Amino acid sequence: MKIVIIGGGPAGLYTALLLAQANASHNITVLERNRPDDTFGWSVVFSDQTLENFRVADEPTFRAITENFAHWDDIDVFIHGRRITSGGHGFSGIARKKLLNILQQRAAKLGVELRFCTDVRDLSELDALGLGDADLIVAADGINSGIRRQYAEHFKPDLDARTARYVWFGTTFPFDAFTFYFLENKYGVFQAHCYRFDDELSTFIVECDEKSWRSAEFDRMDTPKTIAICEAMFGEWLDGHPLISNAVHRASSPWMNFIRVRNERWFHDNIVLIGDAAHSAHFSIGSGTKLAMEDAIALSRHLSGATDIPRSLENYQNERMTEALRLQNAARNSMEWFEHVKRYMHLPPEQVAYSLLTRSQRVSHENLRLRDSTYVTGVERWFASVASVAASTAAATAGTRATSTEATTEHTEDTKNSGILGGDEPGQQHGASDETSRWTRAGKDAGEAAPAPPPMFTPFRLRGMTLSNRVIVSPMDMYSAHDGTPNDFHLVHLGARSLGGASLVMTEMVCVSAEGRISLGCTGMYCEEHLAWWRRIVDFGHEYSDAKICLQLGHSGRKGSTCLPWEEGDDIPIPNGGWETIGPSPIPYALTLPAPREMSRADMDRVCEEFVRSTRMATEAGFDMIEVHCAHGYLLSSFLTPVSNHRTDEYGGSLENRLRFPLEVFSAMRAEWPDEKPMSVRVSATDWVEDGLTPDESVAIAQAFVDAGADIIHVSTGQTTTAAKPVFGRLWQTPYSDRIRNEARVPTIAVGNITDPDQVNSIIAAGRADLVAMGRPHLADPQWTLHAAAQLGFAGMRWPVQYYLGRVQLEREVQRAKEMAAAAAAAATPVTTIRKP
Fold first, then answer.
1. pTM of structure
2. In sequence order, what are the beta bridge partners of 471?
3. Is 634 a catalytic residue?
4. Which listed residue, of 85, 225, 387, 666, carries a Cα 20 to 30 Å from 212's Cα?
């Protein structure tokens, strides 16, 4: 084939040499706009696994790369005067210019024609170059691809220019670990991503949010001035070493915004996108060049011996688009963490470092343990220490609104210099102080101290209620009541889950009136028969388990009077025996449902009293906690969101007005509910539509409820409009909990496709939530928490005495499975770690 590759970066050059290696008869030309040694950036990073892929694809290129890189295993995090180290990460860095030279030389040796200083932005220009008759055109021309722009109607690109600013420098400082610096000053928060890539030079990327960037007046500085200020900012760590710029063909300001690139299609006719032209991944996970070169591997494989080029390009697209999306999702999580790092600066250094390491959601608690078990042991010891002190502190002030979040912060401030985690010597940064915990320091003096519990099995206290662990059974509608009355099904359903180890079991949404029900199968708390059954259910949980029981109270609003979902489907009105629904505005939730009646002031007064009545009954039933349902488009939620609240009076319009009625209801309930018992509020943090709640509004809503007396915010999303377009995935709603917790500084409950103990430990240890609620896992396994404790080897869980023999057998089976896995791993062929001699 006659092949033209536009762009002589790693993507284009690697594609060229792999195609030439596969078939020497190909006529391949690479067109590059810059000179051979011009390059943006200083270096690239590869994992050990990526390097192994290079070895398989082309041994000579692999060998040349591995002879010229610097390798490291450790990550150092410097924050608030502390250094925290985690090992076992296995990455290698190489100078970008050196990588280009290696690829250029290998491509030329294989017969590829390299034309530099040839800028092609439109394919019509190929005729003048004698290349207009190419069989295949590979667009490897980067994030600002001219070819992608020319054929945008076919590729359908989606470009997202981020607001954070970054500048890419080099330095002569010889880093011996992948290093992150976090600096907070009067201008804002600044961070640096740093690593060595050869014997003489290191990369030094400075990043900050837009507000900090403008506050420091970087927007008015040229490159020399920017360098001078950055050298001063990070001078204590640079130790006199300079920062160096190699910006090519750039304006006076060296700062940039990252652009996230996606395309609906990666090929059109005989034109194919590769590398940053097809996709981009934020530099904070170091996967941009990896993705580009692995694109090249896949493309060359699919084109090998191909007779149908469009079919081969389609196969390439189908294979690589999935992998690119996976890495882009991880890169997005990482990127957003750094864009909003200011929200984490109030956390203890230990938690900031752990949050950093797990930011992409690709590295989890147990994955970190495989990399560096000493580090994770230290994290667990530290977390258990502060959780224990926090619970004790809150217990001493039971009946007030002190929470373990406040106590943890106070404790950390008292002990941040006591060697809990961090220090001057690698390997000596783990442990908890003897003064604050029964778990002793790791190291020589550890003796026979019991291991600290995993984060999910630490206590948490809200007012006068202490939870033994961080796992909650989510509220889940069962649609199995009769006239609002729970029955034997609810007793068995909730009773089984209270026996299963979760520290808190939430009821389904219990409706405050008959007209407040979603369906005829919904439970209520508005008559004596309801109260008697709920008391029976609560008494069972209290007698046979340590679980606390929470009553979730709500009103269906415009989503009410519908059929059972498994009978007629979702959002189908009851044909006979239904009732008129109410809402803030006469806007139907779905096209299948009638519009609700707009509530009058009298309606509001009546509904508020119904919530108070149910709260009073909850006290009589013995519930430990109440949650007010202000999410998922039900009545109180529909006041909060502009999607359903179009009122023009004092209850509509501004967020302050939209909050007014839900806060009236909550405050009336709080006044009725015993002061020593906590209350939660469940919110939908986003409507998943452009004209819905904003992120800032969701934070303000949470803060408003806490100011009114809420103790924790249960963070969900969506279900407020049928026009919503949620982005599903694992832990998909956790970022909203993270934001509310760390911007509003309030305790939160995370929910949403959280399925295993590893995820729970990661969320809790990173400070993304204080509690984790799971629904479907508990439907599949009522004893999920007990099984998780056995899986993690945590012996501190209380099992029902009647189940003792089941516990013994399960723990024996878990231990046997671990031993068999260890034996299999030992017998497997060892993988050679790629290192520079």
1. 0.90
2. 772
3. yes
4. 85
